[in-house]
Amino acid sequence: MSRIDFATNADDAAIVSHISALITAGSPVRLALAGGATPAPILAVFAASGLDLSRTEIWPTDERAVPPDHPASNGAVLRRLFAGTAAQIHDLQPGPAPGRFSLVWIGMGMDGHIASLFPRPSIPVEGAPAVIALTPDPLPAEAPFARVTLNYAALLDADEIIVVARGAAKGALLQSAARGEGDWPIVRLARAAQKPLRAFWRP
Predict the structure, then answer these.
(1) For the whole prediction, is pTM greater than 0.90?
(2) Is the dihedral of CA 142, 111, 58, 149 positive or negative?
(3) Is 56 helix (H, G, I), strand (E, B) or coil?
(4) Which of 12, 138, 183, 194 has the fewest beta carbons closer than 10 A?
(5) Which alpha helices (DSSP H) does 31-82 contain, by range?
(6) Which residues, 6+ apart, have CB-to-CB distance to 4 below 8 Å?
(7) With contact defined as beta carbons under 8 Å apart, do 64 and 145 qualify?
């Protein structure tokens, strides 16, 4: 069985539609959302869709150790994107995990990292869901900050996990992860998941 299912339609509109369906179902929704350049414009369209987000709670999957108004803060980006909506935006602090999510959205780096779970330091997949503090080794040049992040167990404590990635190189990495090859963080997550991750990938 593939550990990752690839969506037939993976464009930005399909992702917005996929998340919007959770809202229109009517139940309270808890989202953990990735930071970075790829999600922001997609989430901007979702936030501007006019959906009633009064029963929607949102957390970042990870955060940089920066002031809350810093341009590199994932939480600051979410607060900006969802300003004017009724969504509740929560900060991510080390300690117990927020609880089970309706959906976790992760991105993926070319080193296979997800959220702020990098190849080093190696974090156990086993254990209780938690928000943990860590410092990537090496620090990413584009964001050289210590982090807090949902651990593997907290990411897995979700009704659904989606991966959004763009470009041929990331597509090849996702295909390897779908076959369970290697030991990148994305592979560790996919191996431990009770059902396949859903990938919205396009070249």
Answers:
(1) yes
(2) negative
(3) strand
(4) 194
(5) 39-47, 74-81
(6) 163, 174, 177, 178, 190, 196, 197, 198, 199
(7) yes
